[in-house]
From TrEMBL:
Subunit structure: Homodimer.
InterPro entries referenced in this protein's UniProt entry, alphabetically: GrpE, GrpE_CC, GrpE_head
Record-level GO BP terms: protein folding
Biased composition (Acidic residues): 10-21
The name this protein goes by in its record: Protein GrpE
Organism: Reinekea blandensis MED297
GO cellular component labels: cytosol
Amino acid sequence: MTGEEKPVEEILENASDEFDASEARDEANASETDVEALKVQLEQAQDEAAKMKDQYVRAEAEMANLRRRVEKDVENAHKFGQEKLTKELLAVADNLERAIVSTEGENVDVNAIKEGVEMTLKGLQDVFSKFSIEAIDPQGEPFDPQLHQAMSMVENPEVEPNTVIAVMQKGYQLHGRLVRPAMVMVSKGGAPAAKIDETA
């Protein structure tokens, strides 16, 4: 072995050291590249997060405004929802006031007052019809506890049991929903009257 020749172990060791150093340099370069890439990704994520936060804040503000508008609309609907009905009823009130004024003279014409009240009632019934308010007048119909309120029961052999024989106060429905039941008298039926034998 000459003085310039190196043992194999030393050559391998030097090659390994050079490889390790080269690998470390590559790793350092790669980690610098990774750090730069991560910084770019972080900036992008922060920009995206800022955009999302801005959109969220805007959506929250829009929802708050919408909630306030809806609350105001509901409040106005409660306050002024019956405005149309009120306007229609004003004509009825005017007619009733005229009927009262017409009774205050010396020459009171009862027939004219009666006609005026009948016209007023007709006007009120027209208003009811416009607003889907239906009267319940069950005279002669079977008793219906969903629509009628029995005030008394009367024995009446001439009609079927549980038949409305008198209406003391009409009931009313609004769009099919019961507002007030009809107050009625209902037949019990009772025992039929004994027949008299007239041939005896």
